[in-house]
Specification:
This protein has helices at about 15-25, 40-45, 65-75, 100-130, 150-170, 190-195, 210-220, and strands spanning about 10, 30-35, 50-55, 85, 135, 175-180, 230-235. The protein is of the alpha/beta class. A seven-stranded parallel beta sheet has the order 3-2-1-4-5-6-7, sandwiched between helices. Helix 1 crosses helix 7.
Length: about 240
């Protein structure tokens, strides 16, 4: 299928982890716009898909005239409709309130929340035109906060509030909004967190990426008259599974 005949999906953080898994899955059925920070990384993913394009931006630079704004100015005119928008990009900045730096708090809120607002707002006309679906890949940390992860948890709670507001605002326009809350997933970010905790990494105790991708697909493929508003996916459980 040529790009114009396929439904269009935009995926941020599409070059690694959950985002890459989502890109590869949606690539079977959609024309995918792959978002990432590195031109070479985005190009490598795009080259492996049947119908795709790239979207390169630094989500941490989303102020006026910044990298994200410039990239969106180039992208938006090329997308008269967007059927799916998946926000998978994110940063993990852990630390106690007493010790985490102001820079860590600012980066967490900028990448995990403000950039999501900027991308969504820019693509809203195209989402409305398609009656599209927005999926924000949140976290269990967006439902329950924990010690030593203040910047990350706060940003994920804020992301949940954002998606709740967006959902109520966009129902009248036919846009569906899903807040997806995976438990711990076997990704590079999980390695960072476990190293920060000083614990032993046990991939078998975590969700695999394909499980989270299947949850995204559930929201995307929900019948037209239904909306998957919120979805929590946790490791099944066992004696070694973290809560």
């Amino acid at each position: 299928m040529d790009a114009p005949t396929r439904p269009v999906a935009v995926v941020t953080g599409g070059t690694r982890g959950i985002g890459l898994g989502v890109v590869r899955d949606l690539g079977r059925t959609h024309h995918v716009v792959v978002g990432g920070r590195s031109q070479s990384g985005v190009d490598a993913v795009v080259a492996g898909l049947p119908s795709a394009a790239g979207f390169v931006a630094d989500l941490g630079d989303c102020g006026p005239g910044g990298s994200l704004e410039r990239a969106l100015e180039r992208l938006v005119p090329t997308l008269p409709r967007v059927d799916v928008l998946v926000h998978s990009a994110g940063v993990l900045r852990a630390g106690t309130v007493a010790e985490a730096s102001t820079a860590d708090w600012l980066e967490s809120m900028t990448v995990n929340v403000v950039a999501v607002v900027a991308v969504t707002r820019a693509l809203l006309p195209a989402l409305r035109a398609a009656g599209g679906t927005v999926v924000a890949v949140n976290s269990g940390s967006g439902l329950t906060a924990s010690a030593d992860q203040g910047p990350y948890c706060a940003s994920k709670f804020a992301l949940r509030a954002l998606t709740d507001s967006l959902r109520d605002e966009e129902r009248a326009h036919g846009v569906r909004v899903t807040s997806l809350h995976p438990g711990r997933v076997d990704t590079d970010m999980q390695h960072e967190l476990v190293e920060h905790e000083g614990a032993r990494y046990d991939a078998a105790a975590y969700l695999d990426v394909d499980t989270v991708v299947a949850a995204v697909r559930t929201a995307v493929d929900a019948p037209a008259g239904a909306s998957v508003d919120s979805l929590s996916v946790r490791p099944r459980g066992g004696p070694t599974t973290p809560r």
